[in-house]
């Protein structure tokens, strides 16, 4: 599933307006061949894989967790999971695979913290510059570095914000990618759309979009692609 995470990111970004972890550098080579659309389906009654129209977000998350091994699901995109109050992220950060920090207007110097195996895996700016730590010049208690345990990230963010220099990077905080191996986040019920990729075979995958109204499932969009 790890090799499908970039595919999930690109698909989610195309419909949700999020930022991906790595910027794509321009090259002079041929454009990559896009995946081939095999089939698409829309369900507004019934269901798929035990996920049923009318179920709550909590019920559906439990279903996705139960089948994650069988269907190769590791990450889930959660649309509009955006915060302006840092305290709202307490206890949430370890449940997600990334946190994006930026000003309300959006800047090239926004910070993207990416997690794997319960540690900080990488740090990027929005314009694709890779960092070993952020910010530079603070003490260890107010600096996030690659390799830090994810459980320590929240308190370090509090310390960074309290110093004031980077307070504007906490105007808009986004947690778009949910680690489905981790517990349900009740705030996910406020999102209008979730997304995930399910592996069908080595080259074929299903991009599933779950549409919610008032925390209940109203539609399932299922699109099968071939990445040959």
From TrEMBL:
UniProt-listed PROSITE patterns: PROKAR_LIPOPROTEIN
Protein name as catalogued: Lipoprotein
UniProt source species: Mucilaginibacter gilvus
């Amino acid at each position: 599933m790890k090799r499908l995470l970039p595919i999930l990111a690109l698909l989610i970004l195309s419909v949700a307006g999020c930022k991906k972890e790595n910027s794509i550098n321009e090259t002079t080579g041929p454009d990559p061949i896009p995946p081939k659309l095999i089939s698409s389906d829309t369900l507004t009654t019934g269901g798929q894989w035990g996920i049923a129209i009318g179920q709550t977000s909590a019920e559906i998350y439990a279903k996705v967790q139960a089948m994650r091994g069988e269907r190769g699901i590791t990450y889930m995109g959660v649309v509009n999971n955006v915060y302006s109050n840092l305290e709202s992220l307490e206890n949430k950060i370890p449940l997600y695979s990334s946190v994006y920090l930026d000003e309300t207007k959006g800047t090239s110097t926004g910070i993207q913290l990416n997690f794997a195996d319960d540690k900080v895996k990488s740090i990027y700016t929005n314009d694709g510059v890779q960092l070993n730590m952020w910010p530079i010049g603070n003490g260890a208690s107010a600096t996030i570095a690659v390799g830090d345990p994810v459980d320590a990230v929240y308190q370090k963010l509090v310390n960074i914000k309290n110093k004031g220099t980077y307070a504007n990077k906490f105007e808009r905080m986004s947690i778009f990618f949910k680690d489905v191996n981790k517990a349900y986040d009740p705030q996910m019920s406020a999102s209008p759309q979730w997304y995930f990729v399910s592996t069908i075979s080595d080259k074929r995958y299903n991009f599933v979009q779950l549409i919610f109204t008032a925390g209940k499932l109203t539609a399932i969009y299922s699109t099968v692609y071939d990445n040959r």
